[in-house]
Specification:
Elements: E1 17-21, H1 50-62, E2 67-71, H2 81-89, E3 99-104, H3 109-119, E4 121-127, H4 133-140, H5 145-158, E5 164-168, H6 177-190, E6 193-197, H7 216-223, E7 227-231, E8 243-249, E9 262-267, E10 280-283, E11 288-290, E12 299-300, H8 302-306, H9 311-323, H10 343-346
Helix pairs in contact: 1-2, 1-9, 3-5
Length: 348
């Protein structure tokens, strides 16, 4: 096992979370991510191989990375995904083997959940924006709600718990309060953890409009039409992006002495940024390191690696990228520029 100095930026943030996009392709066309006809895919020759993904992960783990999240696009479209998971979970760093999880739309997960869990994947975050089939089709441009739900349940049955559900609300599309409450009821009944995420300026169309974004406060207001919510202490959050709330039936507050039904989270990346505690670094499917989801620049690891760079040289490139990380994403600044890559090409 090789141990290297940890990834610390100039603001003292220690990076322990690596997001790896394993593909930019997706089986859905969610309007907040890409247009209905899709976007040009990355050339296959530029995509990292299994061995290259695992090698970069190994370097990162030697620098203190403790969690690796596989993202896309849709990671389940990568045929060697089980091999990628097995390769990463076999790594060893200062904190032991990394925890491996995945963000997915869960289409196809029903067939692969058991194999992925056996390879070492511990849990999944599933993107699910509605329980209504007509709204799902309107948002995702595909009739695949049943497949997504089957994948959610299969992940839980395989032991990848807690299953987390990520929901983005779009004004006038899936923001009916009764439907928002129904999502929370669904999650509570099945033991899933629901997280609502403010829509971010990462769509391929560059059509994001702050005035149309549904804020975290608005989301909480909708949820409170069906449940009582009580904020958990800030220290329970740590570096996690979600502000968590205990959920109880209406009229049953925390002083009643009854345990909560579960939790719900709000990730208010735009209105309440949490950049000061960010511990994430991202690797794109074509081998670029991004020190922020909204970074306008990247550090190329693929080219040096293919030209014979050593692991120490890759570590230096990774460290330099983190060293140049800005204090925040700057969405609320007048000079903010949306990154050229859409979310599907960056990875969540």
């Amino acid at each position: 096992m090789v141990t290297r100095d940890p990834l610390v930026d100039s603001y003292g943030r220690v990076h322990r979370d690596l997001r790896i996009s394993v593909t930019d392709r997706c089986s859905l066309r969610c309007t907040y991510c890409m247009p209905e006809d899709g976007v040009p895919w990355l050339p296959r020759a530029t995509m990292l191989t299994t061995e290259e993904v695992v090698r970069i992960a190994d370097v990162a783990v030697s620098m203190g990375i403790e969690e690796v999240r596989l993202t896309g696009g849709e990671p389940l479209l990568r045929r060697d995904l089980v091999d990628v998971v097995a390769g990463i979970t076999a790594l060893e760093g200062p904190a032991g083997s990394p925890e491996v999880s995945m963000t997915t739309n869960a289409i196809g997960l029903a067939k692969n959940a058991a194999a992925l869990h056996e390879a070492g994947m511990t849990r999944v975050n599933v993107s699910l924006d509605t329980l209504r089939r007509d709204v799902f089709i309107s948002l995702a441009k595909r009739d695949r709600l049943a497949d997504t739900l089957a994948g959610v349940h299969a992940a839980a049955e395989a032991g990848m718990v807690p299953v987390k559900i990520n929901t983005v609300l779009m004004r006038g599309v899936n923001d009916a309060p009764e439907d928002v409450v129904a999502l929370l009821t669904f999650a509570l009944e099945h033991g899933y953890e629901l997280r609502f995420i403010e829509q971010m300026p990462l769509d391929a169309q560059h059509g994001w409009d702050r005035t149309q974004m549904i804020t975290g406060e608005e989301i909480l207001g909708m949820l409170r039409t069906g449940y009582d919510l009580a904020a958990q202490p800030d220290e329970a959050r740590g570096s996690a992006p979600a502000e968590l709330f205990d959920v109880r039936p209406l009229g049953v507050g925390p002083d009643a002495g009854s345990p909560p039904l579960g939790t719900v989270g709000a990730i208010a990346s735009v209105t309440m940024p949490f950049c000061g505690s960010c511990d994430r670094v991202r690797l794109t499917a074509d081998g670029m390191i991004r020190n922020c989801l909204f970074a306008t620049g990247e550090t190329d690891l693929r080219t040096p690696m293919r030209e014979g760079a050593s692991d120490d040289e890759l570590a230096d490139l990774l460290r330099a990228s983190i060293g140049a990380k800005l204090p925040g994403h700057g969405i609320n600044q007048p000079d903010f520029l949306q990154p050229p890559r859409p979310m599907s090409a960056i990875g969540g």
